[in-house]
């Protein structure tokens, strides 16, 4: 469906005062072009300062006192290191208690199991927020692996009691468990497992790493000759071998390295096509290099193992040669590199394997250990002898180094191969009198705890390994002092391990937000200053020190996929210190001159200042329906995000109850000194943001056209009006609107439209920052951001603002707004009547390619990129560079091809564009999947292409060395890393659907009383019904709630999974009576308020119309003088005036008539 003619009558447009209308008309007449960004900027200013109350809030912040502290780097780093040492020591001490209990009790282990089976727990399981699943803290459970030997022994009750006491003493502990050499597994707290027999602790990375206490480098060699196609118990030997090989891979951790070799007539190594590799990157190194045993590499190489098939002869020498090549070309630090050699028969091709081992191992100083596995009863004495001699390297020359005798395992029953092969690490196990706790490389918890590290210790009895015991702790608990650190505006901290892997850094997701397998980033990929090399080398050695140099801060512009990042050089002071008792080190980075600024504590907080957002805990209080949410208009609601707490576990691992809310109230109001873990600054933030509620309540009439209003502070406090419950993972400082606003100093910031998750339809967010006032005599915006205020408006409301410009209503022009990244903030398509209008985050290069291409050619719209470290992709996006181009004031291309004008909207992040319609020529840009997320749109040209190629935002595979797990950022199009993606929020509205249906609306907007399209769309929640369900035009269009005709057509499906339907009557039959009886309360709502009598309105309207007619005449003459060399010009079509009811309050801009 094309554009529908707008229904303009007498309007009550609520966003512009008469004064602003006069300003627009005046500036429109005096401006050099068709459009004027200054006037539109004034409109946004008016909304920000009147509807949102930014000026009043800034004044409130200016009046309060601030505490300012200079950051003492040496002292702060010592305090951080000491705090982290204590955090790490607590779970280590708990682990030692369990280890000691097991070793004391091992002699008392009995063959009778007194605990529940984990796959058949009989105790009472209760959901526990700390574990994200149902558990029983009074019990432990036990599982037994399928291949466990007979006559098993089970742990005693004393071991269980020790684990239980540990959890009571340290609530940050998660799972505690003990895996035995026999395959018995004990876990506390008790939980339900799907299949007890399928879980074998001996095959897990934590078990192998703790048992060996060594870094491993392993080449797994698999026989794929014809005989491996023979069957055993319904499975081929190759299928059994594949299972065993993959189990061996499972025992490795990212500190280890491994490779796979398959052989028959010759040896083959992994090589993938684009559709085979799990990570969708063709260029891999698996064919020639050892790989770090990361989850990603393990998945990819398991995929290679799965694809093996049987056939051909058996060439041992070729397989061994390839295996030694892997080891020779690797840079592993493993003391004893090893080859696991698996076959079912004697060699039938190739040279002497013993000579191959002799020659190849000599090149490596005879340090390689060979473990051979022969399977099946068809393997005769001769074949077993060869494999035995290969393991002991009987032909090798000790002159090149001591010969390390390996082991040969004959597995007559192939069903036991998995157990035999996966226990290869037993060879490397040595007795340690005081083994050090192993901190596993962080991994993603399957239950949603985020990144977890396992602290493990081997358990010995009579100098024999009997098992491994571990305790799990989340990184968010261990690193809470780092992840919530806010030491100034440009200062931060990070943590690395001894292998220079980054454990935490601001450019990586917070540990509790990680949702996929971790990409282990070398710290040099994030801290790339040349001077930093000295820092990281010292940290890796476990030293402490300090150094100062210029480094780069990479900051998000808001939406990391669409807007990318900007980098700022900062003279920085680095302070680092080891975390004693671990292989980790922490570094504090301070910006030169950075200060810590906090609000002074308020005298008192009264009950009306604080209403916690958990409305579900107080259902008896006054509640109403605001769109699809349970809300309250009696007050705003306050939420504390994760960073508002000193210790994250107090928030993340706590299920808030009514008692919790009462605790917050008691602390804030001074009735108790128990702060419940809240930071000291929170009380001041609650007090100061209460003034925002008072401002919003004083502007209640404005609530009809703004959807939500909210303010968030840098310490994690957020206040929303109307009051509503927020999701638990809502961190205001990580939301796109907050980060985007922080990018623009003292500007009004608009977002591209999006579907409001709370039922308001397609909205845009308008936001503005609040600054501290510590710089006397300067504007507040010179200080540090302390809060961001924002409001949501419907797309149709934004359309009303655009329509204030007369030419934008003409069929001759199209007007649209873009943001700094080139995305459409408004376009006429967004308000087109259709079954599914194209309201999406859409780039101008797709929708307006001619204008976009011209901006690219003029050097205004420029391509930029960053490397997405999580997805291994290079993100390409665009940025408007107007100020540093040849067109700092905008572009007037009218009378040329393409014919358009672009002006920056003053004091904002957006640009107003008007173009001729239809445009004489077009230019197609490379755009694919424009309606989807740019993170899912692959660049259509994968080669190195120039920056002026017109292509929508997209991604390319980043240059990444999978084997070494290192980015080649220096050769990428951008040297900067992308910032972490904003996590998705938990959907709150779906859980409230039933309650919402029973509530009355918070605002009775009476859509039926809105008699024109302009009036209708000035009310949030109303929609102008223009078409019947069959697409035919209605004889009399009318205004109704959006669920009647969501996009202008009756009966359209709303864009939500759950739609409340037309719960407010359209009132068609009473429309005339209601209209006559209205006193203007619902119609005359405007930001500045209407002032003057109706006679004043009529006189002003007449004057404006005279001015407007003169402007149009002057505009036609102006372009007649400038059309030389331009295409045929079509003058703006005059808009026909329409009659109007003189009782209405404000005429539409394009219908002002002369007296």
Automatic annotation (TrEMBL):
Gene3D superfamilies: PAS domain, von Willebrand factor, type A domain
Listed GO CC annotations: voltage-gated calcium channel complex
InterPro entries to which the protein is assigned, alphabetical: Ca_channel_alpha-2/delta, Sensor-like_sf, VWF_A, vWFA_dom_sf
Keyword Transferase: no
UniProt keyword Membrane present: yes
Membrane-spanning parts: 1083-1108
Keywords: Membrane, Transmembrane, Transmembrane helix
Ranges where the VWFA domain occurs: 217-428
Domain of life per record: Eukaryota
UniProt GO MF annotations: voltage-gated calcium channel activity
Biased composition (Low complexity): 1126-1147
Region (Disordered): 1116-1155
Pfam annotation, one family: VWA_2
Matches recorded under PANTHER family: VOLTAGE-DEPENDENT CALCIUM CHANNEL SUBUNIT ALPHA-2/DELTA-RELATED, VWFA AND CACHE DOMAIN-CONTAINING PROTEIN CG16868
Protein name as catalogued: VWFA and cache domain-containing protein 1
């Amino acid at each position: 469906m094309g554009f529908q003619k707008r229904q303009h009558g007498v309007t009550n447009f609520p966003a512009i005062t008469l004064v602003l209308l006069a300003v627009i008309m005046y500036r429109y007449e005096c401006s050099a072009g068709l459009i004027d960004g200054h006037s539109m900027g004034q409109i946004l200013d008016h909304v920000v300062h009147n509807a949102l109350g930014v000026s009043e809030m800034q004044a409130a912040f200016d009046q309060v006192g601030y505490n300012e502290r200079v950051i003492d780097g040496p002292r702060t780093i010592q305090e951080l290191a000491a705090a982290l040492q204590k955090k790490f020591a607590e779970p280590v001490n708990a682990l030692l208690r369990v280890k000691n209990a097991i070793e004391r009790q091992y002699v008392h282990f009995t063959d009778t199991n007194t605990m529940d089976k984990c796959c058949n727990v009989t105790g009472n399981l209760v959901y526990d927020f700390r574990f994200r699943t149902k558990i029983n803290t009074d019990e432990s459970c036990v599982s037994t692996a399928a291949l466990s030997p007979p006559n098993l022994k089970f742990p005693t009750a004393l071991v269980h009691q020790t684990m239980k006491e540990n959890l009571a003493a340290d609530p940050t502990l998660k799972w505690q468990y003990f895996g035995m050499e026999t395959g018995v597994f004990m876990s506390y707290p008790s939980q339900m497992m799907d299949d007890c027999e399928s879980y074998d602790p001996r095959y897990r990375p934590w078990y192998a790493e703790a048992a060996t206490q060594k870094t491993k480098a392993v080449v797994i060699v698999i026989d794929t000759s014809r005989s491996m196609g023979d069957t055993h118990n319904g499975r081929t030997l190759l299928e059994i071998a594949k299972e065993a090989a993959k189990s061996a891979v499972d025992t490795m951790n990212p500190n280890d390295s491994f490779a796979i070799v398959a052989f028959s007539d010759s040896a083959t190594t992994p090589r993938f096509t684009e559709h085979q590799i799990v990570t969708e990157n063709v260029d891999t190194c698996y064919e020639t290099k050892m790989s770090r045993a990361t989850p990603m590499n393990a998945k990819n190489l398991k995929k290679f193992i799965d694809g093996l098939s049987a056939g051909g002869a058996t060439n041992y020498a070729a397989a061994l040669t390839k295996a030694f090549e892997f080891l020779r070309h690797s840079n592993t630090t493993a003391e004893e590199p090893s080859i696991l050699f698996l076959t079912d028969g004697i060699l039938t091709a190739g040279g002497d394997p013993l000579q191959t081992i002799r020659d190849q191992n000599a090149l490596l100083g005879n340090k390689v250990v060979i473990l051979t596995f022969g399977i099946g009863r068809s393997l005769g004495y001769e074949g077993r002898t060869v494999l035995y001699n290969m393991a002991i390297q009987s032909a090798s020359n000790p002159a090149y180094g001591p010969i390390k005798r390996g082991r040969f395992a004959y597995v007559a029953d192939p069903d036991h191969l998995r157990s035999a092969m996966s226990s290869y690490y037993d060879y490397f196990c040595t007795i340690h009198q005081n083994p050090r706790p192993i901190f596993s490389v962080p991994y993603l918890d399957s239950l949603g705890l985020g990144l977890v590290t396992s602290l493990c210790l081997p358990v010995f009895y009579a100098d024999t390994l009997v098992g491994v015991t571990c305790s799990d702790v989340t990184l968010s608990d261990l690193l809470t002092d780092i992840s919530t650190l806010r030491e100034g505006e440009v200062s931060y901290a990070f943590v690395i391990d001894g292998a220079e892997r980054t454990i935490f850094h601001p450019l990586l997701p917070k540990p509790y937000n990680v949702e996929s397998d971790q990409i282990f980033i070398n710290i040099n990929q994030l801290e790339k200053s040349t001077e930093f090399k000295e820092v990281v080398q010292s940290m890796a050695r476990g030293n402490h020190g300090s150094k100062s140099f210029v480094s780069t801060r990479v900051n998000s512009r808001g939406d990391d996929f669409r807007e990318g990042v900007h980098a700022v050089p900062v003279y920085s002071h680095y302070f680092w210190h080891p975390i004693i008792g671990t292989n980790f080190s922490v570094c504090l980075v301070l910006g030169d001159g950075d200060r810590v600024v906090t609000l002074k504590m308020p005298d008192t907080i009264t009950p009306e200042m604080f209403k916690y957002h958990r409305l579900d805990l107080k259902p008896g209080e006054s509640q109403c329906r605001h769109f699809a949410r349970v809300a309250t208009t009696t007050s705003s609601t306050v939420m504390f995000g994760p960073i508002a707490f000193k210790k994250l576990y107090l928030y993340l691992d706590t299920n808030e109850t009514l008692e919790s809310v009462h605790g917050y109230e008691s602390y804030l109001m001074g009735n108790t000194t128990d702060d419940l873990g809240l930071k000291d600054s929170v009380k001041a933030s609650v007090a100061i943001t209460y003034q925002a509620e008072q401002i919003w309540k004083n502007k209640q009439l404005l609530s009809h056209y703004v959807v939500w209003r909210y303010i968030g502070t840098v310490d994690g406090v957020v206040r929303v009006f109307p009051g509503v419950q927020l999701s638990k993972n809502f961190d205001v400082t990580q939301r796109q609107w907050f980060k985007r606003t922080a990018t623009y100093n003292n500007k009004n910031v608009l977002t591209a439209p999006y579907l409001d998750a709370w039922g308001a339809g397609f909205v845009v967010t308008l936001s503005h920052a609040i600054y501290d006032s510590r710089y006397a005599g300067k504007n507040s915006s010179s200080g540090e951001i302390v809060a961001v205020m924002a409001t949501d408006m419907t797309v149709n409301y934004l359309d009303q603002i655009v329509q204030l410009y007369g030419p934008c209503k003409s069929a001759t022009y199209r007007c649209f707004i873009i943001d700094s990244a080139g995305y459409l903030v408004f376009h006429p398509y967004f308000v087109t009547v259709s079954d599914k209008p194209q309201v999406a985050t859409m780039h101008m290069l797709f929708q307006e390619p001619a204008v976009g291409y011209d901006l690219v050619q003029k050097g205004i719209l420029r391509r930029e990129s960053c490397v997405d470290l999580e997805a291994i992709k290079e993100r390409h996006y665009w940025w408007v560079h107007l100020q540093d181009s040849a067109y700092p004031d905008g572009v007037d291309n009218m009378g040329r091809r393409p014919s358009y004008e672009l002006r920056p909207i003053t004091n904002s992040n957006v640009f107003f564009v008007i173009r001729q319609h239809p445009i004489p020529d077009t230019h197609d840009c490379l755009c694919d999947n424009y309606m989807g997320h740019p993170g899912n749109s692959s660049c259509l040209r994968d080669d190195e292409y120039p920056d002026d190629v017109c292509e929508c935002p997209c991604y390319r595979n980043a240059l990444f060395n999978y084997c070494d797990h290192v980015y080649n950022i220096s050769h990428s199009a951008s040297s900067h890393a992308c910032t972490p993606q904003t996590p998705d929020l938990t959907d709150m509205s779906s859980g409230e659907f039933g309650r919402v249906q029973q509530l009355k609306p918070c605002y009775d907007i009476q859509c039926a009383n809105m008699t024109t399209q302009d009036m209708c769309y000035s009310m949030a929640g109303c929609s102008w019904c223009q078409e019947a369900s069959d697409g035919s035009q209605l004889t009399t269009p009318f205004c109704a709630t959006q669920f009647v005709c969501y996009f202008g057509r009756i009966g359209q499906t709303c864009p939500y999974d759950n739609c409340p339907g037309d719960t407010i009557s359209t009132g068609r039959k009473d429309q005339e009576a209601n209209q006559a009886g209205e006193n203007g309360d619902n119609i005359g709502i405007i930001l500045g308020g209407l002032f003057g009598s109706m006679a004043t309105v009529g006189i002003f309207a007449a004057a404006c119309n005279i001015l407007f007619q003169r402007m149009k005449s002057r505009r036609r003459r102006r372009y007649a003088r400038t059309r030389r060399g331009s295409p045929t010009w079509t003058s703006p079509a005059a808009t026909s005036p329409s009659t109007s009811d003189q009782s209405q309050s404000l005429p539409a801009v394009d219908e002002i008539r002369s007296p």
